[in-house]
Amino acid sequence: MIRRYKQNKIKEYQRWAVYVHENQGYLGRSVIACKRPEADDLANATQEELLEFLQIIRELKNALQKTFQTDWFNYSFLGNEWRHLHCHLIPRYQTERIFEGIVFKDELWGHNYKTDNRDSSLSLRMTHLGLFRNSKIIYF
């Protein structure tokens, strides 16, 4: 499953890697994946992994708030399709946002997010990724 995200890597840490999620229906949606091969559950994470994870989500949250003026965040550790320790960080927006000429509207604001609301084009993902990597977006 990590191969699915490899081309979307934003930043690598000692114990985790951060990726732009392929579906940008929620603008800025990201995946934070543990690099330890046998890591499978948050409850089994090491102290070092947990501390670094907290650092990452603070940096990522701050960057997304500055860049897209996010209103809230959902964090999800499901492991249904990929039995490996990873977190989906889903930015939520009370009002619509426009990025690269595309309108992003959180139709379910105030309720659970829906993962299949929009599948972003490859060009939008790559633009998003390029902006992150080139620091044109206030990122971490």
From TrEMBL:
Domain of life: Bacteria
Sequence motif Histidine triad motif, residues: 84-88
Molecular function GO terms recorded: catalytic activity
SUPFAM superfamilies recorded: HIT-like
InterPro entries: HIT-like, HIT-like_sf
Domain HIT per the UniProt entry, residue ranges: 1-99
Pfam assignment, any one: HIT
Coiled coil: none
Protein's recorded name: HIT domain-containing protein
Originating species: bacterium (Candidatus Gribaldobacteria) CG08_land_8_20_14_0_20_39_15
